[in-house]
Design brief:
The chain has 161 residues and is of the alpha/beta class. It has one domain: Response regulator (Rossmann fold, 3-Layer(aba) Sandwich), CATH 3.40.50.2300. Helices cover 43% and strands 13% of the residues. The radius of gyration is 14 Å and the shape is globular.
Length: 161
Amino acid sequence: MEFHKDKTKVLFICLGNICRSPSAEAVFKKYVLDAGLGEDFEIDSAGMIANHKGNPADARMRMYAAKRGIVLESISRPFDAEVDFDRFDYIIGMDGSNLADLRSRARKKEDLEKIHKMTDFGVVYDYDTVPDPYYGGEEGFELVLDILDDTCKGLLDHLKK
């Protein structure tokens, strides 16, 4: 299947880059690879804060993802407006707070046009946000993965059009 000659660059954003955005990165990579489109995409994740810089994803998130065959390999890094807005085509926030933070860091109209909400790509579920599971239990991590499974499929379908 042919897609783009140049890579489509996608950056997923959450608050700390240890639960939701690294999960979105891993789930989306899996769909891209399964579709035979690995050469067509550059996929990464980052956080709006630098508190977890250099750390792997949350151990609980990695455990629940692994049960679904999804490996979270990314290392947390903070969003860098001066680099990331120029590098990525799509910058996708997990919730309204992430979107507001991204918009406040936009330098120009073109930056704003790159910002999207993850749940806007939902097909099956009708959630307005990907909730932060950090302070919750098992159900929260499973819900995040359910939402990301749906929205990553929808995102890939959107980008293939």
